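Re: beginner question about structure tokens

> Can someone show what the tokenized structure looks like for a real chain? I only ever see the sequence side.

Sure, here's an example I had lying around. Input first:
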Amino acid sequence: MPVQFRKKSGERKLMKDYLLFRKMITPPFIHIIFWVGVAAVVIGALGTMFGQSFLGGLVMLVLGVVFWRISCELMLVLFSIHDRLSEIAKKPGTGI
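And the corresponding structure tokens:
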């Protein structure tokens, strides 16, 4: 008698949530994109520091990383709002 492997209902539910766009897969990727962007800003700032203007590169380094961080945080906030609204909609008695 062959052994049958069954997926747990939680795994099926998770896959269904991904396929129906109830669960977002983008937030973990935003963390990776953040670090790639930081590396790009640092490389660009170092190139500016040693190629053109040291002060300009320093300003680019500080403001570039801060701006990139804020941009990524705003994207994460949008996904967080979606998650919270989904939780509220699932509660009984919300009328949704």
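Each token stands for a local structural state, so reading them left to right follows the chain. DSSP finds three helices and no strands in the chain.
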